[in-house]
Each structure stands twice: as C-alpha cells, then as structure tokens.
Design a protein that fits this description.
Elements: H1 2-6, H2 10-22, H3 31-37, H4 43-46, H5 56-62, H6 75-97, H7 117-129, H8 133-138, H9 142-147, E1 164-167, E2 181-186, E3 189-192, H10 193-207
Antiparallel strand pairs: 1-2, 2-3
Helix pairs in contact: 3-6, 6-7
Length: 216
C-alpha cells in the first residue's frame, strides 16, 4: 500500500531481516501472483497461450471482466500496482542479501498462475529481482530439502531422491533455459520429450470441453 511504502525505513527493515535470518523464517513471495494481478490490463497476460491447458471454468473465472474485485479498476490503478510490484521485488533482493532464506512458490489457481508453468515464471522473476540464476534454482531444489530437514531432496548425489529434470541448455547462463526440458525422471521412470508433449496434448482435450461448475 502507499502507507507501507511511505513508512519504509531501511534501518527498521534491516533489523527485521536480521530476525528473519536468525530465526530461519522462510519467505515464499509468489511473485507470479503479484505480477499477474498487476498486469491484468495487458492482453499478453489475459490471452496467454497456456490457457489452452486450463478448464474453461477456470479461464472464465480468471477473466478480469468476471471478477468483482477488478471491475472498478482504472488504468492508473494498474500503473500503481506495477510500481508496488517493483518495490516488492526490491524487498526480495534486500532480504536475500541479508541472508533471509527463500523458497519458490507460485500460488497456482490465482489468476494466470498456471500449474507447472508458473514455477519457471517464478524462477525467472527471482532473477529479475536480482538473485543469481544459481540462487533462484536453489529456491526450488536445495532449499526445499533444507526446509524439510532432508539432505536427500534437491541435490544430485548418491542417496538423493532420484527425481530429475534434464535440460537442453544451461539455466545458469539463462534462467529461462529451465523451460528447455529434454526429459524428466520421476520415481525412477523416464519421461522423454515425446512423452511430455503427449501429456500436454492430452491436457488440451478437457480444456476444450464446455465449462461446468465442477471446473472452478
């Protein structure tokens, strides 16, 4: 809010961040939600091609025209929201630099937060906020194991849970390369790119069906 931005004091924030770091208070900012909600006036968001994988009822519910909370929004409201998101991302970087631990989360089913896809969006937003690609990746891998006190999660080593995503390009060079998935290994089963594409194709059929109340 305007009040929270106006009342921000760096020294007080630093003191709070130190408490969060010392107490290992994990942060899950769900930047995907913040950015989507601040850009619902952008057709690139509301006409996202990934809508073809969502049930029609969900797509209708996400449409800003059908959301009572958004019907009164004006262009200047969205401009203001985008400025707040920029500020929130600055706070993410400040907390990260202060040693506050982070986990990746997307809060899917919120408007235009797509199951599966939005994790990749979240990692990219962490990098946009100022984290390194390595640190961003760890929010969804090693840090998950740390949070659960399990050393066998989120690392590639003997004894770790053998769930892997194999990529065609280095995500440390460009975090967007997490989307260039060559294959997935889940519970010891290999899913090739062809298998994954078949899953996506299969997901389109229910999404093309007529909407019902059960879709929401």
């Amino acid at each position: 809010t305007d009040d929270s931005v106006a009342s921000y004091e760096e020294s007080k924030a630093a003191a709070l961040f130190e408490v969060l770091r010392k107490n290992v208070t994990w942060q899950v900012p769900t930047l995907t939600v913040l950015k989507s909600m601040a850009n619902l006036d952008d057709p690139a968001v509301t006409q996202d091609a990934r809508l073809k994988y969502m049930p029609p009822g969900m797509a209708q519910m996400w449409d800003p025209k059908n959301d009572f909370r958004l019907k009164g929004r004006k262009p200047e409201d969205y401009t203001h929201e985008r400025a707040l998101v920029k500020r929130q991302m600055e706070l993410v970087l400040a907390m990260h630099r202060a040693g506050v631990p982070f986990l990746a989360g997307t809060d899917t089913i919120n408007p235009y937060c797509f199951p599966g896809f939005s994790l990749h969006d979240e990692l990219a937003l962490f990098v946009e906020a100022g984290l390194s690609p390595s640190d961003a990746l760890q929010t969804a891998t090693r840090n998950a194991g740390r949070y659960l006190n399990r050393s066998d999660i989120g690392t590639v080593q003997v004894g770790s849970v053998s769930d892997l995503v194999l990529l065609d390009a280095d995500p440390l060079a460009d975090i967007r390369n997490t989307k260039r998935i060559h294959a997935v290994i889940r519970n010891g089963q290999l899913f090739t790119r062809a298998d994954l594409d078949a899953m996506l194709a299969a997901a389109e059929a229910p999404a093309a069906a007529p909407a019902s109340i059960d879709d929401i």
